[in-house]
Design goal:
There is one protein chain. With 252 residues, the protein is α/β, with parallel strands linked by helices. The chain is built from 9 helices and 10 strands. A 6-stranded mixed beta sheet has the order 6-7-8-3-9-10, with helices on both faces. Strands 2-1-4-5 form a 4-stranded antiparallel beta sheet. The longest helix has 17 residues. The radius of gyration is 18 Å and the shape is globular.
Amino acid sequence: MSSDNHPAVATRDLVCEGVVAGYGGAPVINGISITATGGRILAVVGPNGAGKSTLLRALLGLVRVREGRVLLGGKDITNKPLEELSRIGVGYVPQGEDVFDTLSVSENLDMGGFILQRKQREERVDAVMEIFPALRSLSRRYGGTLSGGERKMVAFARVLMPDPAVLLLDEPTAGMSGELTSVLLEQQVVMLAGLGKAVILVEQKAEAALKVANDAVVLVGGTIVLAGTGKEILEDDRVGEIFLGKHVGGVA
C-alpha cells in the first residue's frame, strides 16, 4: 500500500536541515542537510577532519546544534539527549566500546532492551536471534572473548533490541581486515536496511561504503561538496581528488 494511506511509513525518516554545530569557537560543520530514508543506506564519507563524526554526534545530541534542526518523523528532536532518542526510535552503534566486555552476549542484548518490559525484551531477543542466528551459539560467551566481527554482530543485535527506525553507525569497520569489512558492510549493514531501517553509515573506508550505499554525501571542511547515489559518487572522478586533499569546486 502507498505511504499516502499509511503516512507513518514516510514519517520515520531522519531529516537534518541546515545544521551548524561544533565544540566551541568556530563551527565544525556548516549548513548540513541530509535525509535518511527507511530501507536505504546513506553513506557519509570524507577525508580525516571533514566533520563526519561531528555530524553524527550532532544528530545524536552529543554535540550542540547551534543552527538548523534535526527531525524524526516530522518531530523536532534537535539537541535531545541520547537516552530520549533511543526511546523514540534512534539507534546508535559507536566506533568503540560497542559491547560490554564483562557481560555475556545474552546480557548484552538485555542491556540493549533496557527500556522494554520483560516480556517485550524476551520477544525482541528471539527476534534479533532470528536476524543473527550465529549469536545463538555465542549467547554465553563474554563480550571480551569475541572476535572483532563477532563483537560488531552483537553490537548490531543489541541496538536492534528496541526496534529503532533509524540506525547511526560510526565507522563500524574500524580496525577490520578488508575481508571482514566486506562481510560486515555487504551482508550485515545491507541486511539492516533490508529490515526497513534508515541507516546512516559514517565510514572512513569510502569505497567500501559507497559500494553498498543507496545514497551518499561527501564532506570536506564541514560542508557537503558532493551528493548523489552511492554509485554516482563512487564513479565521480572528483572523489579521488578530495581524498588526496586537492580543491574541488573551490572547497579544500
